[in-house]
Design brief:
Chain B: InterPro entries: ABC3_permease_C, MacB_PCD, Macrolide_Exporter_MacB. Chain B: It is found in: Cell membrane. Chain B: It comes from Arsukibacterium tuosuense. Chain B: GO terms for molecular function: transmembrane transporter activity. Chain B: This is Putative ABC transport system permease protein. The complex is a heterotrimer. Helix content of chain A is about 55%, strand content about 15%. Chain A is α+β, with helices and mostly antiparallel strands. Chain A folds into three domains: about 5-45 and about 265-395, no CATH class; about 65-100 and about 215-245, no CATH class; about 100-210, no CATH class. In chain A, the strands form two sheets. In chain A, strands 3, 4, 5, 6, 7, 8 and 9 form a seven-stranded mixed β-sheet that branches. In chain A, strands 2-10-1-11 form a four-stranded antiparallel β-sheet. In chain A, α2 crosses α11 (about 315-350), α9 (about 265-300) packs across α10 (about 300-310) and α11 packs antiparallel against α12. In chain B, strands 3-4-9-6-8-7 form a six-stranded mixed β-barrel. Chain C is of the alpha/beta class. In chain C, the strands form two sheets. Chain C has a six-stranded mixed β-sheet with strand order 6-7-8-3-9-10, sandwiched between helices. In chain C, strands 2-1-4-5 form a four-stranded antiparallel β-sheet, with helices on one face. In chain C, α3 runs parallel beside α5 (about 145-155) and α5 (about 145-155) runs parallel beside α6. The longest helix of chain C is centred in the C-terminal third of the chain and has 16 residues, at about 175-190. Chain C starts with a strand and ends with a helix. The chains are: A alpha+beta, B alpha+beta, C alpha/beta. Chains in contact: A-B, A-C. The interface of A and C includes residues 304 and 315 of A. The structure holds adenosine-5'-diphosphate (ADP) and magnesium ion. Adenosine-5'-diphosphate binds near residues 20, 38, 44, 45 and 46 of chain C.
Chain lengths: ~400, ~425, ~240
Amino acid sequence: MSLTLLFKSLLQRKVITILLLIQLMLTLALVSNSILLSQQAYTLSNQPTGLQLETTLAIELKPTDENLIVHPALGELIQRQLAELRKINGVRYAAFTNQTPLMFGGMNGDVFVPDHAETSSVDAVPYNYAEAGLFDALQMTLLHGRWLSAEDKNTDNVVLTEKLANRLFGQSHLALGQQISAGTVVGVVADMMYQRFASDQYYGLFFNRDLSRADYGYRLILQVESQAVAAVRQQINQSLRQVEPEIDIQHIVSLRQLHRDVFEQERGLAILLSVLSALMLLVAMISAYSHALFHGVQQQNEIGIKRALGASKRRILLEVLSESWLTTGIGVTLGLLASFLLQQQLATVISLPALPLWLPFAGALMLLFCVTAATWYPAAIATRVSPATATKAL
Amino acid sequence: MDNLLHVFALAIRNIKRAPLPYLLTVLILSLGLGMFFSNATLYYWLNHDPLPHKSQTLFYPQINATLQPCDSCTEPLRVLSYQDVQKLSSSGIPSAQAAMFQSAGYARLPENTRQSPTPVALRITQRDFFTLFDVPFLHGERWADNSARRELILSKASAERFFGRTNVVGEALQLGNELYTITGVLDDWTMLPRLYDVANGLNSAQSADIYLPWETAYDLGIKSNTTTMSRDSRNYSDNFAVNGREGDFFQAQFWVQLDTADQVSAYRQFMQQLVQSEKEAGRHPRPEGNRLTNILDITEHFNARNRQLDAFALVSLLFLLVCLFNASHLSLNRYLASQYEFGLRRALGASRGQLQQLILADVAVNAAVALLLSLTVAMVAMALINHLLPATRNLTSWSPAMLFAMAATALAASYIVSLYPAIRASFGSLNRQLK
Amino acid sequence: MITLTNLSKIFRTELIETHALREVNLQVNEGEFAALTGPSGSGKSTLLNILGTLENFDSGDYLLDGKSVKGLSDAALSKLRNEKIGFIFQSFNLIKDFSIFDNIELPLRYRGLKASDRKQRIDQALELVGLHARRDYLPGQLSGGQQQRVAIARAIAGEPRILLADEPTGNLDSLMARQVMELLEQINQRGCTILMVTHDPEQARRAGRHIQIVDGQLHDSTLYQPLSQPLHQPLAAVQGA
Ligand SMILES: Nc1ncnc2c1ncn2[C@@H]1O[C@H](COP(=O)(O)OP(=O)(O)O)[C@@H](O)[C@H]1O
Ligand SMILES: [Mg+2]
């Protein structure tokens, strides 16, 4: 059918058409923005972590007996626990630390180069008090200098992550031997994702130190053979209880789980919006479906006349479809604008990247596809109307 | 009455005659309302005023009293040190004031040494806490004063958990290695949002199990298990009773109740004078950064709004809009399909008023079905939201007032959705339809 | 040009079978004006619908211009309808939302004519039925007789060789009916074959041939007189008359 006739028939049904257009517009705006959010969540959670997410287990625990919470009883307890854990089949390395990578919260402090205190100061850097074994337990990569050894015990010798070393000294290898507010740099390791909400998620400082108190509990990190993860997890509880019953084992988690939790908000919102988008597409499809169905019934007579005048079924189908393509086309065009508007509104509330142009277009195609699919069946039924019956006098 | 029944019978017959379009209309309406209800519920619990009769009198004072000099640090820390609390408590202006922080410990009955102890959530605070936030007592009473004492106040649930009953005033409970006497048991109490703990982003967490005196915690070295900050090089693992009290160790929230505008301005003035004299004494090297924030502004102040939920709320509102448009589109179709019948009725002498009754009955039936369906959708949606955003887990209950509001919304929505179509169908020109 | 041999049509519903046409044999030649009469429910409309390929049949055969329509695809049948056959219905069957012009244009569009060709033909057809001034009206704004003349204009704008009219004057008063009848005669004189269902004996008499249907059977055919020459002429010639 000609475009002018299509427009005429749209104008005839002003209200329905406007309702349809607004709905399509909002749907596209929402769909493209939730794709955007999902994309962002995906990008965020696919940043390199520098960690073995699947094979590293973190145990968070705290003695319930206050006598065990302070040094040296604490250190002695930890060593006994680690010895027991190392006995479990499949455990490759085990070490304690005061904080776990990827875990929200922990001990953070500021760091600066004493000579340039004003310019080099970085606040909220995770301070790791651990032992030499943490290197293997977290499968770190040494970039410059050396890792901490037994003679660094309870000294101020410190290892930095590469990004922090870069931040403080411009180039990471220049950090070696330098004095910083926290101690003397002896080594630089590859970046690991530590605390997302610290000043940078790849900053970290490592000391070889005993824990003097465990008011906030402490953590044991296990590096496990990949095929033994599940089995090891099951035995941890019992092994630890065997060493000392007066402890509260708060969590046993893989770093994979922690990683998931870190991006929980973004992931959650992305999933919610995707569900909502799917619902919106469903609603758009229902609407297209029932619109076509209804008009099939309403226009039986009209279709019958057209058939009698020589329109083939295909032609009628095309007419019905092109009507829905036209409305969808207009709605989608408005929706492109609305997508950018909604992006602006959402960006005032949450952090959201700019909307790339291709995205609403892809959304538009998807919408067009859904609407076509939903229109097809009732439209095909409408073409089956018998022209003889439809043109009969009442 | 007879007429009413007739009208409803007709409405139901209308549904039976064309169940698919009807179902689709109501389904779409319910999807929109359900998503909206689920969000509105979360949004309500996160944003409503938990203490409407006194929220305007509760304030959170902050001073920028860190001893480390820093000229560009104009914003005070979120949490206060023992020294800050001491100074801010000395005005005598507020009608109630209390410092507090959250911690955790292990509790057991003293005779029960064989069994491993139970982890408990602690709130370390002062006696006015219970007045500030209208905390109801079931048995006993709050502490006599703010000095250190081995006395605990229990939540009702903890009393039942440890003793199997609620009236346990005078009983002993062991917390860590220390023995305490129970001096009070609270009645059921939750404050949502938990505005007093927003500094730690814990506005939707559970209330504490056990309340412990502030000075006692400092004596025993019990620290906050949420945000703590130190700005000097003292060793806070050692001799906390002295270091924690004297050092630059920040962990406390502090709330004051200022009943009148005069009290508020007096307190502001007091803070100014305090900072002035501190500066003179060389104990306030940073720029002045006095803040006195009302409890209703505290979430914004600490930038602790759940942005994700805000965004979702915005979007679900749009979704509702789409569903309304869609449903009215469908119901327009539905009404147009029965336009002929409407015309016939009018030709048979039905007045517009009578037709309107028909339509209203239709709306009422729609609203009822949509309400039921949308509550179901809302429950499913909330379960999903809770699953994806665990911080929302305590925010899902419905009060009778909320249910009533939802019913009213459903009615309004289905009225809006049917309004235009009904007018079109019943007031359209007669002759055109019957021709 | 139309040959029906032993054509039968049965309507089957769940409850009953209706033999709408039984073993009908019919021959219609180019240029004839045939009137179909018969009691209500005798199968007149069914016969017309089958002739117009709006309806299929159960047995027998239908040859149009010597070719059987059996087994033709929907697209082929549509093309055939569009090019060779014009319909006039008792209830006019104009499309309400389309203007007079748009209504007449519809079959021409289906044929894929250029806009200028279409316009020329519509103008001619409207001129013929005397409604040129109303080309932008909606059908609802015309009287019944005018609407039927629009329907006739629509049917002949495509210059069909057969015009099928099912009680074209059934909804009109006698004056209007006479106008329509005269119009049809005029069209027939220019060579268009017409089959018309009517209840009016006067009209039946005026037609060159009178076919009666009773209970699905063709009872009586007046002798058909072959015309000496093929009469199909372009519309322009009709107009010129
Ligand atoms: N679509 C149909 N389904 C079932 N029966 C039909 C249908 N159309 C017509 N008939 C029956 O076929 C017979 C002939 O109908 P019709 O050709 O319309 O008669 P008329 O001579 O009045 O035009 C009637 O008995 C009618 O009931
Ligand atoms: Mg008939």
